[in-house]
């Protein structure tokens, strides 16, 4: 039995690729496809429309960055989680700028990977510990260097509170417990904020919160 989350695994090493696909399948995810390179990843993703793409950055002669951009151009609602041997800051930032929803290093355990894929499917940004602060700092730096953008839509105090906690990766139930409201009320605030900001999901909300300096370290 699967839990309804469809996943595609992209890696140029066949043993690693098939091993990850098998681990995820055994733990209840629906691995609908695998791919060995960027071109195949984009082509296959268009056909199977996975909810989450789990992708390495080093794909032999091609780069995962090309695949990220190609997949998201065709399937903007698909979420991409990078799984890479590299923890280099430049690789992390380039992946996020290309549109990745999260970044894990390959030292993650099978259970950590499973939890990360599920959270990514639910719209939350997921990073190996230590990398989230790097991304936060970079977005703040970029936001601080350009203050000439359009006016920021006004959010209520409660919407701002919810946005701050969404960006920290909390679920609606966890936010509700923190703020003393029901999870349905939290979802109402989330949907209202998405409409006001003309965004589509929680990953975009988190990025917005980081860019505006709403998230506290």
From TrEMBL:
Domain HTH luxR-type: 148-213
Pfam families (alphabetical): GerE (PF00196), Response_reg (PF00072)
Assigned keywords, A-Z: DNA-binding, Phosphoprotein
Domain Response regulatory: from-to ranges: 6-121
Annotated positions of the 4-aspartylphosphate modification: 56
Superkingdom classification of source: Bacteria
Name recorded for this polypeptide: Response regulator transcription factor
